[in-house]
């Protein structure tokens, strides 16, 4: 079948027509359908197209990139509403990718920070030392929990380890701040749901973290070059009972020899795609047990910067439930009077129900506590609600209490070399990251190529 015939077949609206039977071809002429045009789907597509495969990518959204989403709403600066950083630039495959396309990156540093107490005073040296000693206690509590046979929630392990109940009110606040800023913000899961045993079971790349000056989308644009994709195609069902796989979207039917599914864990959890036959139990168990966390962003743009301009990070110990504990400043890195506030876990979930105005004013209260009532009002804002997003239902996966790391391998396993799976959640060691998604796409492409060239 030539390319033209293939594309006609792919775009065929069946409307009751008979699907012609076709035995599975064992070559690069196979029709490969990839569901999802995020980092994993596009990485797989690029690899397969380079090997000569006919590939079509179906994307439910009206844009490419998935959880990489660079907003162009502010004309003078692209803003990443999804992923921002290459985490650990050393030996990270994304660093090489960025270099290939000469994408400009800027490093941020955790050593450049300003940290404030709940009433907005800068921490002095001895307070900072005390905060660090609490952090060491938290870390050793987690290490102990790592070694136990029985799992527990991260919050429970930490509370037991630091003897939370016998701490002063201030130390309790500080422990909760550290859990929020250094753990929940990174893993996006509530500490009540995170597994203590499998905390930090992932691998990391060394080196600093880097932001993209033109936004992360630059990688997506590069990977999408030469790829055949269709937007606004929400896959509803995948029937893999016959040799020819039948994939239905809201208005079209596509046929393929092999299908790669890259939709987020949140979409699989929500049962938005009907598989027939149903997915095997080891996969459905993994889908249920692994956690899908929420990390949301609030960008506030001000007429001028009123915070320490050399600090990349502004941290604030909250008064009550942890909120707006961490802000990234874009002043030093991009010379812009913009602050990016984060919310994660349970707080992020409940905040998604708030109006934009409520979210902005709660964030402003925090900033006013630190910098005074006279700080300028934001001239504009941008807010995300990843938990409600019907194409992700969350920000990224985490190891939840009750989940085991090998479950990610079960999620990644192909089924009879017909249905393949990729996406950040399928990566045992690099889940929750863009590089994890990328590596999973390469892995799935290799599996497909092995399967079709036995
Ligand atoms: C707020 C936020 C901040 C983050 N920060 C970072 C960071 O700084 N660094 C980092 O490394 N990682 C970060 N991440 C995580 C990173 O963005 C993801 O791990 C990665 O982009 C996931 O890529 P993926 O291909 O697995 O999934 P996705 O990018 O979600 O791609 C899956 C695609 O499938 C599509 N889809 C879903 N359902 C259907 C359907 N039914 N039919 C058709 N298409 C469908 C989706 O629209 C999407 O385009 C962040 C994520 C968020 C949300």
TrEMBL record:
Q: Which GO terms describe its molecular function?
A: oxidoreductase activity
Asked if the Swiss-Prot or TrEMBL record annotates the protein with the keyword Coiled coil, the reply is no
Identify the Pfam families for this entry.
Amino_oxidase
What SUPFAM superfamilies does its record include?
FAD-linked reductases, C-terminal domain (SSF54373), FAD/NAD(P)-binding domain (SSF51905)
Question: Which residues of this UniProt protein bind substrate?
Answer: 342
Under InterPro entries, the record lists: Amino_oxidase, FAD/NAD-bd_sf, Flavin_amine_oxidase, Flavin_monoamine_oxidase
Keyword Oxidoreductase assigned to the entry: answer is yes
Q: Which UniProt keywords apply?
A: Oxidoreductase
Tell me which residues make up the Amine oxidase domain. 39-448
Required co-factors: FAD
Q: Which domain of life is it from?
A: Bacteria
Binding residues for FAD, per the UniProt record? Answer: 40, 235
- List the residue ranges forming a coiled coil, or say none: none
Q: Which PANTHER family match?
A: FLAVIN MONOAMINE OXIDASE, LYSINE-SPECIFIC HISTONE DEMETHYLASE 2
Protein name, UniProt field: Amine oxidase
**What organism, scientifically named, is this protein from?**
bacterium (Candidatus Blackallbacteria) CG17_big_fil_post_rev_8_21_14_2_50_48_46
């Amino acid at each position: 079948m030539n390319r033209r015939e293939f594309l006609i077949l792919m775009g065929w609206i069946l409307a009751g027509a008979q699907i012609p039977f076709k035995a599975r071809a064992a070559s690069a002429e196979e029709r490969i359908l990839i569901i999802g045009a995020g980092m994993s789907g596009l990485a797989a597509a690029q690899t397969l197209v380079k090997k000569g495969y006919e590939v079509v990518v179906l994307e439910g959204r009206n844009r490419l990139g998935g959880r990489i989403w660079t907003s162009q709403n502010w004309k003078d600066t692209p803003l990443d509403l999804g992923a921002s950083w290459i985490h650990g630039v050393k030996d990270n495959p994304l660093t090489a990718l960025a270099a290939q396309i000469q994408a400009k990156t800027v490093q941020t540093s955790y050593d450049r920070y300003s940290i404030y107490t709940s009433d907005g005073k800068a921490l002095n040296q001895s307070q900072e030392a005390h905060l660090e000693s609490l952090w060491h206690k938290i870390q050793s509590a987690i290490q102990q929990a790592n070694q136990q046979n029985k799992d527990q929630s991260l919050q429970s392990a930490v509370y037991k380890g630091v003897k939370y109940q016998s701490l002063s009110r201030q130390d309790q606040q500080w422990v909760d701040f550290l859990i929020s800023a250094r753990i929940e913000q990174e893993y996006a899961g509530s500490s009540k749901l995170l597994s203590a045993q499998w905390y930090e079971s992932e691998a990391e790349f060394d080196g600093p973290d880097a932001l993209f000056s033109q936004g992360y989308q630059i990688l997506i644009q590069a990977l999408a070059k030469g790829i055949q994709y269709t937007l606004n195609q929400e896959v509803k069902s995948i029937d893999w009972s016959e040799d020819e796989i039948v994939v239905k979207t809201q208005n079209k039917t596509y046929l393929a020899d092999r299908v790669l599914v890259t939709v987020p864990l949140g979409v699989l959890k929500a049962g938005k795609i009907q598989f027939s036959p149903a997915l095997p139990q080891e996969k459905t168990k993994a889908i249920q047990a692994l956690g899908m966390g929420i990390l949301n962003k609030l960008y506030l743009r001000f007429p001028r910067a009123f915070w320490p301009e050399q600090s990349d990070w502004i941290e604030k110990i909250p008064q009550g439930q942890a909120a707006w504990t961490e802000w990234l400043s874009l002043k030093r890195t991009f010379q812009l009077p913009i602050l990016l506030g984060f919310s994660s876990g349970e707080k992020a979930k409940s905040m998604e129900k708030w109006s934009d105005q409520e979210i902005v004013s709660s964030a402003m209260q925090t900033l006013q506590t630190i910098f005074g009532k006279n700080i300028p009002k934001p001239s504009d804002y941008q807010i995300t609600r990843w938990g409600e997003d019907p194409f992700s239902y969350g920000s990224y996966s985490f190891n939840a209490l009750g989940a085991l790391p090998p479950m990610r391998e079960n999620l990644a396993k192909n089924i009879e070399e017909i249905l393949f799976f990729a996406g950040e959640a399928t990566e045992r060691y690099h889940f929750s990251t863009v590089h994890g998604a990328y590596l999973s796409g390469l892995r799935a492409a290799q599996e497909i190529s092995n399967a079709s060239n036995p």
